[in-house]
Amino acid sequence: MAEESSANVPKCLSISSTSPLIINIMSKRRTWVFLFVSVYSLLLSLSWNFLKTVLSWYETTLISTPSSSFTSWPALYASVLLGVAFGILSMVAALAVVVPATLVTWITILVLMTFVGKPRTALVMEGKKLTGEITGFVGKVLIKEGNIVAAVCAVLGYFALVRKARDDGHSNS
Predict the structure, then answer these.
(1) How far apart are the first and last CA of the chain?
(2) Using N-to-C axis directions, what is the helix angle for 29-64 and 73-116, rounded to 10°?
(3) In Å, how far are 42, 52, 55, 89 from 77, measured between CA atoms?
(4) CB of 110 within 8 A of CB of 127?
(5) Residue 39: Cβ within 10 Å count
(6) pLDDT number for residue 150
(7) CB 71 within 8 A of CB 65
């Protein structure tokens, strides 16, 4: 009897031998921590290299222009580039917090609507609307926060670069 029931199981429902291994690996907290640390290490490395590239470009621009004709345009360009880079980096970093919080909020609202007694069809429709509203709201907040970080970094970077250039210009004279 057991042989007959196992013979009737479709092959698509049988689990391959690698699936439990993958599920076991991905269910471990240390796997996700490793992925998180790896991604942020990569982001920090890329942003550090970008920072060094922008600053070396700025230094070569200062060296190529005479000190008597100092303009703040290279500092403005460099500070805007740095502001944009750190604004994007802050938005990516915020995603690590926003995505789980958004999922918890979404699930909580759907569960509460289920407890209230909404029928399944209405629940599906509300879930679709809710997904769009939450995603739009989160996107707006992320862009707003990223712009604020970018603006602050750009302004601080500009003043730091202009001050450095003027200090270097006065010390060389």
Answers:
(1) 98
(2) 160
(3) 25, 15, 11, 18
(4) yes
(5) 13
(6) 87
(7) yes
Q: What angle do CA 86, 89, 91 make, to 5 degrees?
A: 110
CA–CA separation, 125 and 132 (whole Å): 11
**Which run of H or E residues covers position 167?**
helix 120-172
Which amino acid type is present at position 37?
Answer: V
pLDDT at 57: 83
Tokens of 165: 């250039």
For the chain, give the number of residues: 173
Q: Give the mean model confidence (pLDDT) for residues 68-81.
A: 75
Rounded distance between C-alpha atoms, residue 135 and residue 112, angstroms: 19
**What's the pTM value of the predicted model, to 2 decimals?**
0.60
DSSP-assigned states of every residue in 94-156: HHHHHHHHHHHHHHHHHHHHHHHT--HHHHHHHHHHHHHHHHHHHHHHHHHHHHHHHHHHHHH
What is the arithmetic mean of pLDDT over 36-59?
A: 82
Domain ranges of the chain: 40-172
Range 115-154 burial, b when 16+ CB lie within 10 A, else e? eeebeeeeeeeeeeebeeeeeeebeeebeeebeebbeebb
